[in-house]
Amino acid sequence: MNNILQLIAIVLMKELFRHCGDWRRLFFVVAVITTAGVVLQTFILPQPLSTFFLSSPVTVSSYKSLNSTIHLRETLPLARVEQFQPIPNAPVVLLNSSNELTQSVPILQEREKVSRKRSPAPRRRRKNIKTYVKNEPKFISPPPGRTVPTRLQRYVWSLPPDEALVYAKKEIERAPIIIDDPNLYGPLFRNVSVFKRSYELMELILKIYIYRDGARPIFHQPHLRGIYASEGWFMKLMEANRQFVTRDPERAHLFYLPYSARQLQMELYVPDSHNMKPLSIFLRDYVNMISAKYPFWNRTHGSDHFLVACHDWGPYTLNEHKELSRNTIKALCNADLSEGIFVAGKDVSLPETTIRTPKRPLRNLGGKRVSQRPILAFFAGNMHGRVRPTLLKYWGDKDEDMKIYGPLPDRVSRQMSYVQHMKSSKYCICPMGYEVNSPRIVEAIYYECVPVIIADNFVPPFNEVLDWSTFSVIVAEKDIPKLKDVLLAIPMRRYLTMQINVKMLQKHFLWNPRPIKYDLFHMVLHSIWFSRLNQIQIPHSS
């Protein structure tokens, strides 16, 4: 190429010399042409001549994206970009789909910005430069991980909170029949179709406002260890949630009172005083402050507010405030119908879960197969309340098939631990203690042992949606003397079905560090949502 250019230059020089005659005249003409070229390049052309002759061409792709942009695919190496610096504000003109001229950001200026951010070596694939096409609508893509709202979602989200709840209740009443769902095991539920539709609408609609008022540790500081950990785990996961929590109380369908009954007891109760009134007065004053500061409590007298308390004293700390006790949705481990505080259909039975290691809440899950469960029934625990002494009286050291103890003796625990006993038993006895609730119910589910509940007036967790007769045995307190006969009367086929159901039920009782669909956090939340819907009255036209 260079030889050809040199030959062309020699020919041009000869022709100029032939026409000009004199070498002085030739030198003058060459100087004029050179000066004119420099002036032309400097003042007229938008880019240096080297850029026009040496840069690679820019090509326009025929692909047109959803947001009506044209992708420019350039092939100029990064080293070449750095070598030729562009003139500031120099326009690059492209043809759009309407054959109109539109001005975009200079391509080489964009290259310069990229070269400053990234080193030339190693070379990397350059991102396409995009310009929006004029006179065509822009499509705004959703944030990463989110889909574009459907027409139904936009409609529901536009409804005021009360109207959205009416819409949800009507939809649940005409829930489509579910034949087979890979995520839900039908035999566990009273009506799996109703539950699935209600759960879907909860995910679509529900928004919760959390009061920021209240000082730690009673408020906003979850207690995550021990038998009362359920209230703490729910608080922890609720306050970290982004799907259901809203900062706009006008959009809220429910209002959460974020206190811990366990922390309340630890901070305010005087040991051995047997006086819970200071705890009740503290909550009364808190609710009075909330109702005076915000209008939301007074609009419904607290019926769209809820609290979560697993400590045995949870129900008794509400007595000083009538609306708090009567109207608020209470998620309680102590779900005792005989006390007159827990109301079935309005309040929620909260599972009592023993968390020994908060960093590993799912430790020791699972159990042995049925053929490796030689023990018919097992219980070990402290002898408090009215039921456990009776249980020990009739079955303690009375039968080889019935392993019934007080605190597990050392001679026994050295051979087999408490957890191993539950994993090796067909039935795990879950008697009430001082109150009707017992953490052994959830422990039995964790270890795939069919729970035997002995607690009159107790409402089992999620009783509004779960059919407890399919995976547990409920024995009246008066039938404790006949306990072995009751268990032996259950056919093996039915026991095998119940034991399989316990395995399938397990995922609904797990505290996951990050909530998973249908897990314990979502089940508690659904029960609260379902209770709120029960308050809604749908006007029926005559």
From TrEMBL:
Lineage, please? Answer: Eukaryota, Viridiplantae, Streptophyta, Embryophyta, Tracheophyta
The reply to whether Transmembrane figures as a keyword in the UniProt entry is yes
**InterPro entries attached to this UniProt entry:** Exostosin, Exostosin_GT47
Similarity field? Belongs to the glycosyltransferase 47 family.
* Membrane topology of the entry: Single-pass type II membrane protein
The GO terms this record gives for MF are: glycosyltransferase activity
Listed transmembrane segments: 26-45
The organism encoding this protein is: Liquidambar formosana (Formosan gum)
Main location group: Golgi
Q: Which PANTHER family match?
A: EXOSTOSIN FAMILY PROTEIN, EXOSTOSIN HEPARAN SULFATE GLYCOSYLTRANSFERASE -RELATED
Identify the Pfam families for this entry.
Answer: Exostosin_GT47
Presence of the UniProt keyword DNA-binding in the record: no
List UniProt keywords, sorted A-Z: Glycosyltransferase, Golgi apparatus, Membrane, Signal-anchor, Transferase, Transmembrane, Transmembrane helix
Subcellular localization(s) per the UniProt record: Golgi apparatus membrane
Entry protein name: Exostosin GT47 domain-containing protein
Q: Where is the Exostosin GT47 domain?
A: 206-487
Question: Under the cellular component aspect of Gene Ontology, which terms does the record hold?
Answer: Golgi membrane
